[in-house]
Amino acid sequence: MELMHALRTRRSIRKYEDKPVPEALLREVIEMAMLAPSAGNAQPWQFVVVTDRDKLAAASGLHPYVTMAAHAPAAILLCGDLSLEKYPGYWVQDCAAAMENMLLAIHGLGLGGVWTGIHPIQDRVEAFSRLFNLPDNVVPMGFVPLGWPAQPASEASRFREDRIHYNTY
Amino acid sequence: MELMHALRTRRSIRKYEDKPVPEALLREVIEMAMLAPSAGNAQPWQFVVVTDRDKLAAASGLHPYVTMAAHAPAAILLCGDLSLEKYPGYWVQDCAAAMENMLLAIHGLGLGGVWTGIHPIQDRVEAFSRLFNLPDNVVPMGFVPLGWPAQPASEASRFREDRIHYNTY
Lengths: 169, 169
Hints:
The structure is a homodimer of 169-residue chains.
Chain A: H1 3-9, H2 23-33, E1 45-50, H3 53-60, E2 74-81, H4 91-108, E3 112-113, E4 116-117, H5 122-131, E5 138-147, E6 164-166
Antiparallel strand pairs in A: 1-2, 2-5, 3-5, 4-5
């Protein structure tokens, strides 16, 4: 898929076909996430691939915006690893860049996913940490249910001229 | 450019040819940034396009990791607009996703850029806010000097098997 087309047509996909996602594709998606830039090239991230149906069902109940996980064949939990930071404080940006790479790769492979937020809502951080047995230095940032899209997706247009300023605000 | 190739070959570019970047390309890069996902689709971002040589020179002196701005034909300051958030606390992730789209679009157009960090280092936030006259609700997150690459860039490999966990940490 062409880059600009991928950027224009990537959308949040919340409905999936009842069909598994090959592990090789899940790994490719994570490989693309790992190519994101990070402060000092610290790569302060960890990934949990979730295909266990009980775990997906449990995750779907953790807060109101993640219910689609119950019907997804897979999900990826993207976490920041604070013990890997070189420049403290940048892990959120690093992991969000990795997340965007991951969402683009999901789309580029013909899959569909949706970024559901965790950090910085503390209740969610604790719930995901417990479910996936995360150590203290690993903070769940976002959870991405994914699968083969079972919903149409149209091109987005979000250009806002008024958000661009020239040389000064 | 093909998406996966773009993801694999995007690198930080810190040296630029002495040649301007057409304004249409700077706008296209920002348009791609604006297509990023955001919490509640709030799109809580603002952009300052910088082509004024005095501003670029001034920015280059604000901290030790942004000196390449003095020799860049352009830069884009990406800011979070806290007044636009729907789900408070997610603006950093939203803006970092927009940043990654922007870096990929820069690369896809044959340009090169480098993400230099601002937020959450308070000294830098204050210095950029002053230089670009930002209102209180607008927080500078990252500053991207860019131009036509004057350095070779090889493909990155950052895959780390040990960062992938299955169903539990």
